[in-house]
Design a protein that fits this description.
Order of helices and strands: HHEEEEEHEHHEEEHHHH
Strand order of the largest sheet: 1-2-6-3-7
Number of helices: 9
Radius of gyration: 24 Å
Distance between the termini: 31 Å
Oligomer: single chain
Number of strands: 9
Shape: globular
Length: about 260
């Protein structure tokens, strides 16, 4: 694992900060780090200056076998050092942890995926039946327009795959029989809502009998934060919890709308 740790430290120190502007990111720094790590360059795609993604592919032994891709991203969100106990780009080892922006999201996985992929790339491990692809992409933190989206739309010849492993959505869950790893089938998404308010218009100099239409809007928006979210114990949740091999008392709390938040 020392190779993965060393690579993680370097990726953090590269400061590939994506603030959402096209001129940020500077993922080319980490593409260079990966070329040094592997000892060879991959296929580099650069839709905008410095916004580089890189793809490596090891051909499989059986052309009919499915392809597996490992995908990590290289950019991180901004960090305000005043809110950190460690330099967010210092990658310090303290208490058994590497501290830094991106250490969890997701330079840790990018580094470990690269470490797993390297012996296949160098021929130290026999080829898999299908192709094995490693890709490290730009711009994940700002919707991927010059990263994964560009690769899929413009360079499918490089990234085509049947199966893909990427950023983990859940940590392992402790159960009586050992750690459990949930399978994510969906994640958060937008729910756009139009809110309309009505009032009685009037001039500011004669406010008598006037009710400002903004007031109920403000109250409604405030209620979104002040009102507890409703809890629904669905059949899907019951099935999920019952399959986790948990203690009976914890299962009871996870099935109770009044106690589920505290139990989680």
């Amino acid at each position: 694992m020392s190779d993965a740790v060393d690579l993680l430290v370097e990726l953090i120190k590269n400061r590939c900060v994506n603030d959402g502007t096209i001129g940020s990111g500077h993922e080319h720094r980490s593409v260079t780090s990966l070329a040094d790590f592997f000892g060879r360059s991959g296929s580099v795609v650069e839709p905008a200056p410095g916004r580089q993604s890189v793809v490596y592919r090891v051909k499989g032994s059986d052309p009919s076998a499915p392809t597996l891709a490992l995908m990590g991203h290289l950019d991180v969100v901004p960090a305000d050092p005043s809110g950190w106990s460690h330099d967010p780009f210092g990658a310090e080892l303290d208490g058994g942890y590497i501290w830094g922006r991106g250490a969890i999201d997701m330079l840790n996985l990018t580094a470990t995926m690269a470490t797993v992929f390297k012996p296949y790339l160098l021929g130290e491990i026999s080829r898999l039946p299908g192709d094995l692809v490693f890709m490290a992409v730009a711009d994940e933190e700002a919707a991927g327009g010059v990263g994964a989206k560009h690769l899929v739309e413009e360079r499918w010849d490089l990234v085509s795959t049947d199966y893909l492993l990427t950023e983990i959505a859940y940590p392992p869950l402790a159960t009586s029989s050992g750690p459990g790893y949930p399978v994510s089938v969906a994640e958060k998404g937008p729910h756009w809502t139009v809110v309309r308010s009505h009032g009685t218009p009037g001039h500011g100099s004669v406010p008598w009998g006037v009710d400002n239409a903004l007031e109920p809007l403000v109250a409604g928006l405030g209620a979104l934060f002040d009102t507890p979210s409703p809890v629904l114990i669905s059949e899907e949740w019951r099935t999920f919890v019952s399959g986790l091999d948990l203690e009976a008392s914890l299962i009871d709390r996870l099935m109770d709308p009044e106690r589920v938040d505290a139990a989680i």
